[in-house]
Amino acid sequence: MLGSLTGTVTARLGSRCLIEVAGVGYWVHTGSWQPHGECYCLLYHQVREDISELYGFPDVPSLALFEKLISISGVGPKAALALLSVGSPANLKQAIATKDAGYLSSAPGIGKKAAEKIILELSGKLGDLVFADEIITVAPDAELRLALESLGYRPQDITIVLNGLPEELSGLEAQLKWALQQFNRKN
Question: What is the pLDDT of residues 98-117, one digit of tens each?
């Protein structure tokens, strides 16, 4: 089962992106999230007897919310993507928590009855999901990652280097110097 892709977006067709990975192109349904250029996406791989489809997400909580949505009888992957396209995942979580059926039914193909069913099924079950726009603090390596990306390093290479970042290094300048040394050793 596929779990993620790192590659380059080379084409778009509707809400799908063609992501090239090592010479192989994968069509991935991404809904309103439209990655550009070099990208990393988490995947949900739907396999049925007559179809094999990939659905892509920018982060784990979005994928987890998608999986919770499709666990509801009558809500398929395309309806779940439509729901995720209405607003941010945090807004969707808030609408479910506040029982705002009107917000949910604004998604294409989601009627009032379906919205009420989603609220009934998921009320109180989304507390463990935390979305980026709900977090006030910035991840400790976010500035370092941004600095390395602005220097042209690829996201997957940055992740590999940052996984080895010594904990005793404090301050952006010292961390950046160390990371650049690691990249120079690889070349």
Answer: 899 998 999 888 999 999 99
pTM for this entry: 0.67
Q: Which domain holds residue 152?
A: 142-186
Say if CB 54 and CB 45 are below 8 A apart.
yes
The amino acid at 108: P
Residue 105 near residue 115, CB atoms below 8 Å: yes
Task: Say yes or no: 99 and 114 in one domain.
Answer: yes
The answer to the question of residue 20 being in a domain is yes
Total domains in the chain come to 3
Q: Is the C-alpha dihedral spanning 79, 85, 89, 95 positive or negative? A: negative
- Among 55, 76, 62, 68, which Cα is nearest to 4's? 55
Model pLDDT for residues 78-93, shown as the tens digit of each residue:
999 999 988 888 888 8
